[in-house]
Write a structure and sequence with these properties.
The structure is a homodimer. By secondary structure, the first copy, chain A, is of the alpha/beta class. The first copy, chain A, has three domains: 44 residues, 434 Repressor (Amino-terminal Domain) (Orthogonal Bundle); 133 residues, Response regulator (Rossmann fold, 3-Layer(aba) Sandwich); 139 residues, Rossmann fold. The first copy, chain A, is built from twelve helices and twelve strands. Chain A has a six-stranded parallel sheet, with helices on both faces. In chain A, strand 8, helix 11 and strand 9 form a beta-alpha-beta unit. In chain A, helix 5 runs parallel beside helix 12, helix 6 runs parallel beside helix 7 and helix 8 runs parallel beside helix 9. Chain A is elongated. Chain A starts with 5 loop residues before the first helix and ends in a 7-residue tail after the last strand. Chains A and B meet through helix 4, helix 5, strand 2 and helix 11 of A and helix 4, helix 5, strand 2 and helix 11 of B. Chain A binds a DNA duplex through helix 2 and helix 4.
DNA sequence: CTGTTAGCGCTTTCAA
DNA sequence: TTGAAAGCGCTAACAG
């Protein structure tokens, strides 16, 4: 690193290091002409202050960490984009850590983050995390933590998530308004609270529009694609064949697609399908398929905004718990790049 | 930050700071019993060395920057994953910066990276970048740069990219081996070198298998989806209806899908389609559709590996230009999460 | 084997 | 309005 530093600037200008430092941060205690001289030389010499020296001295790194289970998933990718956007706006840098859905990695990362490397952390838990001591440790070190999407109930911290109830409601409403009379709901692992809430929204949607709730139209799917396929097929072969399907996750919508293909049913003419999705797969089901998109980008921005509000200590010490962003109904064009 | 530091450890143990420092880095000049005492107390007090102090002192941050045009694109997301994996293995941290395809942002980021914040940079150019002075500045500051995917010919630096010629060849070969006799090729903006190379691969593939090359089977598509759709439809309605299509980008494969749907052609029974893709859209075309996937993850790992090799100064100062990773033919199962 | 010392480059009192 | 000086926490000569 052959970089110029304050000392060199100071020597060149016959000023003290401290004066140069102050001038560069536009301190009011420096005369305008001096500032000008300093600015000019700094630009000329392409001076870049050493961030680590500054961090060491100020105990602030202007860096945050984003810890997520994976990135090869449009949801998290968009969230990162939201976070990065806000971060750069505020002059922060973003470190990224992937847990790969491994609790052990999450813990190791959390431990390493105790070093003061970052001023704050935005985190989405990996699926299997139960014990959250490693996160409490972070908070004890005064490193603010903001959860998003996959939150933990056991920790007091701001949480940014989608309003799954509302999302389920909107999806159901959409199908009913589109003329469906037998709306099925495909769920996944009911142990997840999101599934639960989406189903609540589904039921409330039916109720709101005076549709009967039929337990046979709710299929609890699991992780075995084969089994899911069979269950969905059975549903379509039964006397309760749905004319609308609300799939809680996109892979289930894909299964519906395959079932319909096998049975010679057309989408969306015979069966309308709506699904949560941040992928583009869905656009193939129909050129104008409607999806429920988690507002990933907005969630990222929101999480970052909340974190920075804490970091800049705006004296709002209200632990604003649970910000719920509404899901968005989206008609997607098929826009994809290579 | 209430963190413990070396001084506190030293006091507690009646040792000097430097001894503790050395012990923690497992220096050979410290006795085993002393090391043990130090380790134990460090663990007990949950000591985490301040990375910024260390960076300041050593002029190395063990941090790299990844600069990419966007992240909401499976290719770059996977690349990040590859980079992060290698980085964590080597004990490095990864800062992420998005240019949003804006040259101005790319330049600003490059400028800020001159501060010594990172030891090296992995970068994929944004589409419009012509002038690469900002990157030369980085190199002049002795910050190694590794390109991946979107490389610049104007700069001497390692470049990791996919072998587009080979990819085009493989795709064509696959269709021919699957029994296709009239393989069409859908290209995009021939100004891009990747399109050019893929087409070369296509032509060489035909030649290799003694298939005639028919200019009518090559459609140069543009950015207007409507127009592309019409051109593809015309091709299928002509007397040269293809039984195999090699789409250079996925969105063109999608258009083929729509055209086939309209014309009542089945995929893959009547027409086989193969496409470049790192998205999962393709899996819908057929449960077992074959795609040509850019080896994004591997490219990320490769780029990171090359970068770290430089950083760790293995005295291999061979500027290993242009590492070309082969594209991979993939039969994809439809694996998607919410 | 361990300690002393002198910084890394910057910020921030405290003086002038 | 400017300067001198004391560190932030850690590392690396150089001594012992």
């Amino acid at each position: 690193m052959n970089s110029v530093n304050l000392k060199q600037l100071a020597q060149e200008l016959n000023l003290s290091v401290s004066t140069v430092s102050r001038a560069l941060r536009d301190s009011w205690e420096i005369s305008t002409p001096t500032k000008q001289r300093v600015f000019d030389l700094a630009k000329k010499m392409n001076f870049q202050p050493n961030p680590y020296a500054s961090s060491l001295r100020k105990h602030r790194s202007r860096t945050i960490a984003v810890v997520i289970p994976e990135v090869a998933n449009n949801f998290f990718a968009l969230a990162i984009k939201g976070i990065e956007t806000v971060a750069r706006e505020k002059g922060y840098h973003v470190l990224i850590y992937l847990t790969n859905e491994e609790v052990a990695e999450e813990m190791a990362i959390a431990a390493s983050l105790q070093s003061g490397r970052v001023d704050g952390v935005i985190l989405s838990l990996c699926g299997s995390t139960q014990d959250t001591r490693h996160l409490l440790d972070l908070q004890q070190r005064n490193i603010p933590l903001v959860f998003f999407d996959r939150v933990s109930d056991g920790i007091t911290a701001p949480k940014v998530m989608t309003n799954d109830h509302e999302s389920g409601f909107i999806a159901t409403e959409h199908l009913i308004k589109a003329g469906c009379r037998r709306v099925a709901h495909l769920t996944i692992s009911m142990s997840l609270s999101i599934s639960h809430k989406r189903q609540q929204g589904y039921e409330d949607g039916l109720r709101r529009y005076d549709q009967p709730w039929d337990p046979d139209l709710v299929i609890h799917c699991g992780s075995d694609e084969e089994v899911n396929y069979r269950m969905i097929k059975e549903l379509f072969l039964s006397d309760k064949r749905p004319d609308g399907v609300f799939a809680s996750v996109e892979k289930l919508a894909v299964q519906v697609y395959h079932v319909c293909r096998e049975l010679g049913l057309r989408i969306p003419e015979d069966v309308k399908v709506i699904s949560f999705s941040n992928l583009v797969t869905a656009s193939l089901l129909s050129p104008s398929l409607t999806t429920i998109a988690q507002p990933a980008y907005d969630m990222g921005k929101e999480a970052a905004t909340i974190l920075f509000r804490r970091l800049e200590k705006k004296y709002i010490v209200v632990p604003e718990d649970r910000v719920m962003l509404p899901a968005k109904l989206e008609v997607r064009a098929s826009t994809m790049s290579s």
